[in-house]
Amino acid sequence: MSVPAFLLLSAVVLVGSLLQVSIGFGLGMLAAPVIALLDPTLVPVVLLLLATGVTTVTVLAEREHLDLRGTGWALGGRVPGTIAGAALVAFLPAKALALSVAAVVLLGVVVSLRGFRPHPTPRAVVLAGAASGLMGTATSIGGPPMAMVWQRYAGPKMRGTMSAFFLVGSLLSLGALALAGVVHLETLRYSALLAPAAAAGVLLARPLSRRLDADRTRGVAMVLAVAGAVTLTVQQFL
């Protein structure tokens, strides 16, 4: 990867980490298309490793607002979804995986814009957890299903609950991917190199989150995610 490409990726990871801490998701949706565009072999492991660190910080900060019962239901669905997602990563070629990333991003944006607001019943949360496990393990973008089912929560509760779910879910996904043989030295190296950018996003999120309009921030994140997904799709077909 060239130096300009790495600097671009670092900037995207920084902004994605800031969004992850501020609104509960965003790192995967924003950064996954860019990583897949630059080097598809780094998806999804690098982002899952970075997300583990980012969500750990958020869980500690919002620990008083966690919905542990809801997180438990969601993780019950995450396990089978994780197994299915690891199988996809092990058998899908790089081009198909890159297109899957783009499709998941666009699907997540469409669902969000449609304004579907399901009640967070145990059944709905389990189904969302399964979808998030499949999408998150295969593409590192597991946020949309959980954001949809938990969107009625207030800011701190949503951020804390989603972060707790993603922390455990990311560890489950990484374990499944390691068993599938797709965690290798190069992904670990890039994760370490991008860790400072993720840390900078976390540090900036706290002072900035008080000034950010959540709806406007979410809208900007979706526009950037769509741009990345469209660019990735065009690059694959060209």
From TrEMBL:
<dbReference type="InterPro" id="IPR052017">
    <property type="entry name" value="TSUP"/>
</dbReference>
<keyword id="KW-1133">Transmembrane helix</keyword>
<keyword id="KW-0813">Transport</keyword>
<protein>
    <recommendedName>
        <fullName>Probable membrane transporter protein</fullName>
    </recommendedName>
</protein>
<dbReference type="GO" id="GO:0005886">
    <property type="term" value="C:plasma membrane"/>
</dbReference>
<dbReference type="Pfam" id="PF01925">
    <property type="entry name" value="TauE"/>
</dbReference>
<comment type="similarity">
    <text>Belongs to the 4-toluene sulfonate uptake permease (TSUP) (TC 2.A.102) family.</text>
</comment>
<feature type="transmembrane region" description="Helical">
    <location>
        <begin position="82"/>
        <end position="112"/>
    </location>
</feature>
<keyword id="KW-0472">Membrane</keyword>
<feature type="transmembrane region" description="Helical">
    <location>
        <begin position="164"/>
        <end position="184"/>
    </location>
</feature>
<feature type="transmembrane region" description="Helical">
    <location>
        <begin position="124"/>
        <end position="143"/>
    </location>
</feature>
<keyword id="KW-0812">Transmembrane</keyword>
<dbReference type="InterPro" id="IPR002781">
    <property type="entry name" value="TM_pro_TauE-like"/>
</dbReference>
<keyword id="KW-1003">Cell membrane</keyword>
<feature type="transmembrane region" description="Helical">
    <location>
        <begin position="220"/>
        <end position="237"/>
    </location>
</feature>
<feature type="transmembrane region" description="Helical">
    <location>
        <begin position="41"/>
        <end position="61"/>
    </location>
</feature>
